[in-house]
């Protein structure tokens, strides 16, 4: 779908009914990056996403694309659809634009979700027009395979068994990353199937159900108790030293669904 905002055709997509969610994409992606989130949210929410000017199906602007321009285009699309307020979610560049939305359209904001936008909220002068938060939030490292100079400590583990297929679908959308350069770096590019369905099966075999390390397995037991042995796929997180240092009680408050 397209809407004209100040003379520029903006490609957008809106799905579902319920409380509104506005999603702002990362650079250099487009509205397609939110496919898995839309699938998960559209049953209970009205989800709006759009291509920023010059991305995807949206026409380019005459001048440089600013975060304020993206924020204003989002507000204009809310007007176009008759939506008063929305929870605004942004990833990377979209997070910068989400902060511009907070500044310029605070009355339209029902909530704010940021991904990969950490430095904006705590460090003065990284983005001079955005004041840092007065209270340092909790930051979490996500587990990866790197072990040096400091081994990963699984402070929190979340079972993703119920949504593992959605995670695989989300990874499947990153074609150049998961099917091209990562396999090339790992020396197994030739093992990647050409057929799309076979690719997904290959990806699931690569990413789903790997054996959990002893430290992660112990953390699963700590968080899941009697249910721990049935957990196969997890996201594990370590509390980052740059943010607020939560107590055990704080972690349980932040992750109440693990109770």
Let me know the average pLDDT: 90
Number of helices: 9
The name CATH uses for the topology of the largest domain is Rossmann fold
N/C terminus separation: 42 Å
Describe the structure concisely for a colleague.
This protein has 259 residues and is of the alpha/beta class. The chain contains 9 helices and 9 strands. It has helices at residues 35-41, 67-80, 93-104, 118-122, 164-172, 175-185, 196-207, 214-224, 248-254, and strands at residues 2-5, 8-15, 20-24, 46-50, 86-91, 109-115, 140-142, 156-159, 234-239.
Characteristics of this structure?
3-stranded antiparallel β-sheet, Rossmann fold, 259 residues, 6-stranded mixed β-sheet, alpha/beta, 34% helix
Description:
Helices cover 34% and strands 19% of the residues. The protein has 259 residues and is an alpha/beta fold. It has a 6-stranded mixed β-sheet. A 3-stranded antiparallel β-sheet has the order 7-9-8. The protein has 2 domains: 2-134, Alpha/Beta hydrolase fold, catalytic domain (Rossmann fold, 3-Layer(aba) Sandwich), CATH 3.40.50.1820; 156-258, no CATH class. The mean pLDDT is 90. The radius of gyration is 20 Å and the shape is globular.
């Amino acid at each position: 779908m397209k809407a004209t905002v100040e003379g520029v055709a903006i490609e957008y997509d809106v799905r579902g009914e319920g409380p509104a969610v506005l999603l702002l994409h990362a650079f250099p992606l487009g509205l397609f990056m939110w496919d898995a989130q839309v699938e998960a949210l559209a049953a209970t929410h009205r989800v709006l996403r759009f291509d920023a000017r010059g991305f995807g199906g949206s026409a380019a602007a005459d001048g440089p694309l600013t975060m304020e321009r993206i924020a204003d285009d989002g507000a204009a699309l809310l007007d176009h659809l008759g939506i008063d307020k929305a929870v605004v979610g942004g990833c990377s560049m979209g997070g910068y634009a989400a902060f511009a939305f907070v500044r310029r359209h605070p009355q339209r904001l029902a909530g704010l979700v940021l991904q990969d936008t950490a430095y904006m909220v705590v460090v003065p002068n990284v983005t001079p027009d955005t004041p840092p938060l007065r209270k340092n939030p909790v930051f979490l490292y996500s587990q990866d395979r790197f072990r040096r100079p400091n081994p990963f400590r699984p402070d929190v583990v979340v079972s993703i068994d119920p949504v593992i297929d959605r995670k695989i679908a989300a990874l499947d959308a990153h074609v150049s990353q998961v099917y091209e350069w990562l396999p090339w770096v790992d020396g197994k590019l030739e093992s990647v199937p050409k057929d799309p369905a076979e690719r997904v099966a290959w990806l699931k075999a690569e990413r789903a159900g790997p054996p959990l390390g002893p430290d992660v397995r112990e953390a699963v037991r700590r968080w899941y108790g009697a249910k721990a042995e049935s957990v196969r796929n997890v996201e594990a997180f370590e509390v980052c030293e740059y943010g607020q240092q939560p107590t055990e009680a704080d972690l349980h408050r932040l992750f109440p669904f693990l109770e």
